[in-house]
Amino acid sequence: MQWPWSTKFAHLYKANNYLAVRQEKFPRWGKKEQLYYILCLAASGYKQAALHYAHWLGKRVSSRKFILEALPLLAVHLPASALSWYNLHYALVKKHYNSNWLLPLAGAASAVGNLSMLKHLLVCLEQRDIRFTRKQQENLYFLEANYRTWLAEAVEDYVPRKVEHILKQEEPEVKKPRKVSYAYQALCHLWQSQGLASIPRSCPDLTFNLSQLESYTPSQVSGPLVSIIVTCYNAEQTLLLAVNSLREQTYQNLEIIVIDDASTQDIKSLINPVCQADARVRYVRLPANIGTFGAKNLALKLTNGQFVTTHDADDWAHPEKIARQVQPLLEHPELIATTSRWLKLDQEGIFTARLVYPLIRLNPASPLWRKELVLSKLGGWDWVRTGADSEFLARLKRAFGEKAVLNLQQVLVLGNELATSLMHDPKTGYSSLMGSAQRLTYLYAWQSFLTTARPEQLYYEPNYRAFAVPQALEINTANLAQDQEFITQL
């Protein structure tokens, strides 16, 4: 379809067809089209070229309205450019503060670690008469936590001058106060505001990470069996954290199936003591590697639950997660699935998001759904190596309708931002140009397919593809056949 020049790149951006701009030249006129060209370029992985054009365009715009529209978009894809534009046009925008662009800009400052700019923006958000939605207020908790964590670390690392040190030698020794984790405080505040139990913390250190969250099961809930599939590959660093968070659920009627996707690490020795201590946990190692979604599909054959959900091997689940997601399905038979929201944080206790802001997002990796009904219509996840969680959720909504999926607003999962995660895979992750292109090609392919797919086309089988995918995302057929035979013999 031929689009008018004035809307071409805006359409590509809104359709997530970012890769199409690689065949296009930078538009010579139209500030808005130039902006959307830059956004598509950044989203497709060409950050340096996008930064160059953003720097050029930033010096040539003078419309306050255009700048205020551009800042939140730039903040997501080019956080450094967004901050540069803000500095450049501060006189134009300072009297027009509002949360819709100030919060994404604060997210940009947090993403690039610009402490002074983050402080300035947080002060603006606090001192101005700005109204926040509940979701905006929740995200603000964690932007403030990041700032306070960085500030506390900077103060702790400060080395006093020699003269100060000598003078203070005569002063009486004062007991140092207990360290406070602002990340942990923000989480407790959020959980309390959402009606969830706060989780005790084992370590008083300033730096917070998920391994510090203690076992806590305040009450027990019963109901139909829920099958939880946990796929893993070389996840010895985080697997026990993930599995134990599931074992400590208030909802007790669970089976936890750990599927090892042919790890090179000795996962069996790690997980066997857990299986012996808790009969609900089962460990299965596949003989050949096929990727997380192929492993999930094979694991479905081992499930016995009325409901099914999945959990990543590097994530932590709140003790009330399963109970909260099951309850609406028990009370409302018209519902097919429930989802929740999640947060990600790195090993330094800093909250982060791949697309900068908002920090709190829908968790597509862990919907909980009615097994028999969903499998009869969909067959399972797409048979690709990565990126299929969002596709599965979109296909589920296409088959049963948007209203059949209830999106819970509670943050029920915390994710570990690790260099070893699928998002950072050099071949298929977003952290490399090639990986970004593979994922974006797949994203646009399944979105285009689902817009016109007939009901019978929504059922996926391993030996049939409804649409083409990049070769890097395809599952090795020999490995798949080997694993399928192995599963049938269990």
Count of alpha/pi helices = 19
Average pLDDT for all residues: 86
Order of helices and strands: HHHHHHHHHHHEHEHEHEEHEEEEHHEHH
CATH superfamily annotation of the largest domain: Spore Coat Polysaccharide Biosynthesis Protein SpsA, Chain A
CATH architecture of the largest domain: Alpha-Beta Complex
Kindly identify the CATH topology of the largest domain: Spore Coat Polysaccharide Biosynthesis Protein SpsA, Chain A
Strand residues, percent? 5-15%
Mind telling me the C-alpha Rg? 24 Å
What is the count of distinct domains? Answer: 2
Tell the overall outline: globular
CATH level-1 class of the largest domain: Alpha Beta
Structural class: alpha/beta
Main β-sheet description: 10 strands, mixed
Walkthrough of the structure:
It contains 19 helices and 10 strands. With 490 residues, it is an alpha/beta fold. The protein has 2 domains: 13-153; 223-489, Spore Coat Polysaccharide Biosynthesis Protein SpsA, Chain A, CATH 3.90.550. Strands 1, 2, 3, 4, 5, 6, 7, 8, 9 and 10 form a 10-stranded mixed sheet that branches. Helix 2 (31-43) packs parallel to helix 4 (64-77), helix 9 packs antiparallel against helix 11 (182-193) and helix 17 runs parallel beside helix 18. The longest helix is centred in the N-terminal third of the chain and has 24 residues, at 134-157. It starts with 7 loop residues before the first helix and ends with a helix. Residues 1-5 and 170-178 have low confidence and may be disordered.
